[in-house]
Amino acid sequence: MRQAxxxxxxxxxxxxxxxxxxxxxxxxxxxxxVEDPFADAFPEPFAEPVDEPVDPFAEAFLxPFAEPVDxxELDVLDDPFTASDEASDDLESSEDEIISFEDxxxxxxxxxxxxxVDEETAAQAGAADEFLLSEGVEFGGKFNGSLPMSWxxxxxxxxxxxxxxxxxxxxxxxxxxxxxxxxxxxxxRVFGKLGFTTASGDAATxxxxxxxxxxxxxxxxxxxxxxxxxxxxxxxxxxxxxDQSTITQEDVEGDDTATQINxxxxxxxxxxxxxxxxxxxxxxxxxKWGVGYFWxxxxxxxxxxxxxxxxxxxxxGPVSFKVHYxxxxxxxxxxxxxxxxxxxxxxxxxxxxxxxxxxxxLGIGAYYQRDLAxxxxxxxxxxIGDVAIFGEGxxxxxxxxxxxxxxxxxxxxxxxxxxxxxxxxxxxKIDDRLFFKGTVGANYMYDFDDEGGSxxxxxxxxxxGEGYDGSTPGLLEAAAHLSQNAGDNGLTxxxxxxPEGYEDPPEVxxxxxxxxxxxxxxxxxxxxxxxxxxxxxxxxAIVNLTDLSGMVIPTFSYKLIDYLSMSAGMRLxxxxxxxxxxxxxxxxxxxxxxxxxxxxxxxxxxxxxxxxSF
Length: 614
Known about the structure:
This protein is mostly beta strands. The chain has helices at about 1-25, 120-125, 125-130, 205-210, 250-255, 410-415, 475-485, 510-515, 585; strands at about 135-155, 165-170, 175-185, 190-200, 215-220, 225-235, 245-250, 255-275, 280-285, 320-325, 330-335, 350-355, 360-370, 375-385, 385-395, 405, 425-430, 435-445, 455-465, 520-530, 535-545, 550-560, 565-575, 600-614. The chain is globular, with a radius of gyration of 31 Å.
């Protein structure tokens, strides 16, 4: 029995040995490496970049709350919380910043925000969900310091022009944005962004650098060198708080020099969803309805409009509640705008749908607030070859604008000894007819081979149905004067002559004067990294086709070293005195009634110091 067992064991050992030998002979000369299932998901962080990197999580990480889509849909479908009409909510450009902020480098490019997921955790929770979670709150931001110098000339094309006697100024400024981003789970997120701006120097220039909104302080120094701060408001001192140290914006602009600091909340909102079907956002965030570059008439929700001289600058959005319903590759939105609302019925309601048809995207929406003109909006984005085409339009029943017209009685202007009041104007509103505003434009980008840089061309035409046709000379200058002197309104009655039920005529504000003409055009040419160097060039041109005023701003910029660059340029305006773009600073009262309102020329030299994201 014992011998039989030994024989069986011997036969088994021989079988295993023969099988191992056959397997070894069949195996390749070098043993194959064990495939790492996470090799693609977490590549070597210091590996050399490849020509066309493939992100295996590109679809999964379009947004923490995005639904999976087909590859062919990725070009046209944005994430549910930052879809194409929301390209500036917190991720302001859906083309190249699906997961990044326009003001910041990509959120996931900083080492502090990369979280390595172990295999066990990934297997349990899924690599995508684990990557989107953060154990704490992520912080970051952007800093920029600027030392701009300018040499300004007035009295162009007159005998008083002196090329050797410019008005020079230096206005250092520092800006910073700080953000926090908390994602405790995959279907909840809280985001906030705080803005800081400080500038000092010539008061008029400082006033143009300090953004509207937020809380602005002016720094003052007394005879003993003690530094104090006063708040700068656009309104008079609060009568309920007589001890409040407050000065008006006009007082600040009248000083020779000023140092101001502005602190503002740019964005603060929470994102969440219901059953991966409805996506919600509540808080303060920028909302981008339009597709225009220099002008966007359909962007009726934001509190500030596009600055044509700085079209990519941040704009202030309202406090709102957004509901987003994505279906297939289309999107539906509902907004409840609660900014400055005192009663529930003051809440504004806006709806919009976006529909992808082939290579085009169409948008249609509506806006209603009981004290404002109702609006219907439409947008289109498409392409012809390598040229991107965009257009938008808005139709409203009535207008929110305060209009002006010459009064029948011009005796006050004729008797004005200081000649400040040149035309007496009446103000009125129109709420019983249709208005239309629309724009169309094109964008072309070309990347040169062999590191030759990239070229961008943008052109846009804008029709403003609420503008003036230019048939009344000097109307804009008179309206600007009236905006600062409400008592000069031709319809205002003295206190002793007011009948029962009398109401003062509507007052003209800054928004009623901007966009004064009916036809506008803008263009920009930009060539970055010229011939592979650190030199870049851009030219901006804006023209009011109604009064034929405008500006041309060519600029060269050069990167000296990391975090230090310089730019040199010129700003040349043209048009008749008192036209919209000829000299807007003097038009709105800076420099006094005798200030030069004709064409101007400025040469600028600026250093951008320490700018970068963190």
